## 1
Amino acid sequence: MDADERKIYYYLKNLRGQFVWGRDIGRGAGSRSEFRRRPDWALLALGRMVERGILETGPADHYRIKPRPKMAGEKYMSPQIASILKASGKDFAELTPKDDDTYYESL
């Protein structure tokens, strides 16, 4: 991801799956001066992100981060719970929020 795409990704990541209008993404993800100079700066990056499968579109130019496909047995858990389960000797798939970031970076 380039710098603009990364700004958009982290902005939408905080909104937890809500659809957001493209112009609001440009206003919220960038700086005020950047938005005043080029109000449509985010539209090109949004288009690239949709093509690569990072974002999905909704009705009327709304965007959100495409949900990551879940593998069988994957669960998010706190580090404390993960250490307890590892100590028990059971096999499990542990996910952290950083795993999501690396997944979307690879697209």
## 2
Amino acid sequence: MTSSNPFDEFIGLYRDKPALFVEEVLGCKPFDYQVEFLNELVKPTRRLSIRSGHGTGKTCSCAWAMIWILLFQFPCKVIVTAPTSAQLFDGLFNEVKKWINELPPQLRSLLNVKSDRVEFIPAPTEAFISARTARAETPEALAGVHNEAGFVYIICDESSGISEAVFEAAAGSMSSTNCKTILISNPTRVSGTFYESQTRQSDKWWTRKWSCLDSPLVSDEFVEEMKHRYGPESAAFSIRVLGEFAKADIDTIIPYELVDAAMGRDIAVDEHQRTIWALDPARFGDARTALVKRTGSVVTEVMSWRGLDTMQTIGRVMAEYEALPESQQPAEILIDEVGLGGPIVDRMRQLVGDIVRGVNVSESPSSKGVYNNLRSELWFKAKAWFESRTCKVPKNEELLADLTAITYTFSASGKMQAETKDSMRKRGLRSPDLADALCLSFASDEITMLRGPMRGWDGPLRRNLAGIV
């Protein structure tokens, strides 16, 4: 005898078949690897971890899972998190809202969608999805989540970037017998809970790898673009395409995970800190003229262009400068004066004064016994800046490629030498112009005027070491 309640029939049909629910109710047919993940949710498996390339459908898979949980796993508490509010609310939680809108009206009317929460209207305190940002400074985001009478799900997007303090605070919640933990991420970091779940602790987790090469969602054009941009042996290609943790490249100056983390970090611009612009000029050919604007620990803008001559480049930078009110204009404009940079320095100093400083990156470093030249020193200074994990740079694929491509060697005298542009071209990589401009912005701390303060003096730059010019 069948139930007279259509909702009971609906529950009976899809309660143990989440993949079928996605196909028949949400109207989207999952791929085989997504079906495998969805169907694992009805099993006793308590810990699931998926590493993935870019665009394989891990975010929408988790969104489908969360909607199914809310409708069929009553009572339930679903906590969804990510390292930053942008990653959480523009990413996974936004995807949940999108798919809720695909539900039939009768089901959609059962859900109350708020800015950071989705509630099951008949029992809003017993069945809900709660979005909580997992910041290191607020590690309690995942702590104390219990539900003795029902299910608990903790779903972590971009898990590689979540602070270990957050996972430590969540240990009690994650260890509950009725709690399922789902970690999804690009494999950007070779340490931490997500890395351990896929490696040393993998016997305690249900683990999968979703490579772009195996996903119908990812085009061949994307794979080829990533191969051309980063190189097939690069950390970026391994992470973004293959879904593999990058091998430790001991000769890479700035690791991928440091840049990736800085691109997703929530840091506001402190207007009380000095603003520095750094210009790495190029004229024609494949090289780009790059302009980086940095205020304290935040890079606010990265610009590049090709094909402009010296005077046009000056005009482009001056247009940026003059468009700003005086209070927002840079305290310094640092220009690589090697090659055609010299005339740009001279003319811009005439236009805006001695805030313009020419920097010869081939000159001696301040740490003369450690680095082969100033450019090498600036690259390692940039690395230390990223390692502080208190900085932010824009999401810019070209900047990411530039920063993570360059390697270093040791000179015959034992000094560290950043890879030259000629060497990079031989490896099939373009000149790292955007990254060179960012590194140049740190020259302000390394160079001082021999004759005291910068104001009112336009002589050549000298090192702050005796005998070094």
## 3
Amino acid sequence: MSRLPTYFISHGGGPWPWLDGDFRRQFDRLEASLGEIAREAGKPRAVLAVSGHWEEPRFTVMSGEKPGMVYDYSGFPPHTYQIRYEAPGSPQVAARVKELLEGAGIASGLDEGRGFDHGTFAPLYAMYPDADVPVLQLSLKARYDPREHLAAGRALAPLRDEGVLIVGSGLSWHNLRMFGASARLPSQSFDAWLDKALAAPGEERTGLLERWDAAPAARLAHPREDHFVPLMVAVGAAEHEKSARVYHEQDFMGGVTASSYRFG
């Protein structure tokens, strides 16, 4: 079995794959990139998604056989609160994730009742619409320490040789009060820094990510870094491997520059 890459993806807004009209069309390029990721990765044994929409006091792994749904958005049409993404979970992979984390001295737990949030089910629907690949989530750890999330990624690196696709799911720009034209210049600035940082050699890249909040427009890009920290897990699991930008647009939501990356 060949080693899988890892990814940091921008997962888009709410339940976008189930919408239509002008709002839905804003995600066409993102959707195409997610389909290409699925073609690159094939059908893995499982997908481990690290979503910006789930945090716990310690790293926690979804461990149910048939995960439910978490409709963690508001203001969308009624049918979007009936969505079902029927991918199975994987208690076996969940146990392996916990084993690897704890083997690295990282406290972790299991959550059998946790369901898929939209940071997972929206992009995974675009990647695997038949829901025929097992999917589970790993939570963020509260306080978002980049070093702790990089360390979690390092601990989970063996999964890449075991057929598990690690996907950090967030958004490279996530300031809900600054979309559209007002985001144009700061998002370009932050995105340019991010692209340069991720192209740096392993130790240099790690150091830059540990100090990410010193980047240009960092706190405009991420007033709260829940949608950025999933990147750390994806990088940690491929710490000394090259990055490649797999999605990039400069007019997302009327002005935002946004990107997704592959590692390895």
